[in-house]
Amino acid sequence: MTNRPGLNNEIVEAVPHVRRFAYSLTRNAADADDLVQSVIERVLDRGLPDDAELKKWMFRVCRNLWIDGLRAKKTRLEAVPELRERPANTLSSETVAADQMMMAKTREAIDELPDAYREVMTVVGLGGASYKEAAAMLDTPIGTIMSRLGRARAMVAERTGYHD
Q1: For residue 124, what are the contacts with CB-CB under 8 A and spacing of at least 6?
Q2: In whole angstroms, what is the distance from residue 64 CA to residue 6 CA?
Q3: Can you tell me the distance from the alpha carbon of 24 to that of 20, in angstroms, rounded to the nearest whole number?
Q4: Phi then psi for 50, rounded to 5 degrees?
Q5: Which residues contact 31 (CB under 8 A, 6 or more apart)?
Q6: Which class for 110: exposed (0-12), middle (13-18), buried (19 or more C-beta within 10 A)?
Q7: For 73-115, how does the pLDDT look when each residue is reduced to its tens digit (9 = 90+)?
Q8: Dihedral sign, CA of 97, 121, 152, 113?
Q9: 3-class state of residue 106 by DSSP
């Protein structure tokens, strides 16, 4: 691992891309900013492998930190169940309430996906990355990305009851 000359400038150029990726994972601007900050700190502290492309390495670090955070959150919630989110109050509009229920059910179904499927669903389905971009970000063959996305969508549809 090394800190090469010009690394700071490369990081500055990569940050907008990594931030979009972080936002697609967290779905929250503040959490995405925190995640990007952690990625930058990790790269500056530990450097990067000599043969690594900085942006790809930052995507990998971002993904790994996000997964670590999810695991830590799950552990905390299991240890203290009262920290779980409480359902939102029902609003007066039936349409808005039905939409919120559908979104909650869909979010829950996505959260329950196996990690590999949830990552692809997040990057492509929610983040809007192309299959090629997702393959590069996740260091996975494009065919595997397409297959996992199809399976993830089918699992979400089955769990939510929203089939075509």
Answers
A1: 130, 131, 134, 145, 149
A2: 25
A3: 6
A4: -55, -35
A5: 22
A6: buried
A7: 777 666 666 555 555 554 456 777 777 788 888 888 888 888 8
A8: negative
A9: helix
For residue 28, CA distances in Å to 24, 35, 101, 159 come to 8, 10, 19, 24
pLDDT for res 143: 94
**Distance separating alpha carbons of residues 137 and 121, to the nearest angstrom:** 13
Spell out the residues 6+ positions from residue 122 whose beta carbon is closer than 8 angstroms to its own.
Answer: 24, 25, 110
Query: Which amino acid appears at position 114 of this protein?
Result: P
Q: Pick 59 or 87 by higher pLDDT.
A: 59
Kindly state the tokens that stand for 104. Answer: 């909650």
Euclidean distance between CA atoms 115 and 124, whole angstroms: 14
User: Which amino acid belongs to residue 163?
Assistant: H
Residue with tokens 């075509």: 164
In whole angstroms, what is the distance from residue 16 CA to residue 101 CA? 33
Instruction: Tell the residue number behind the tokens 């996000």, with chain if given.
Output: 66
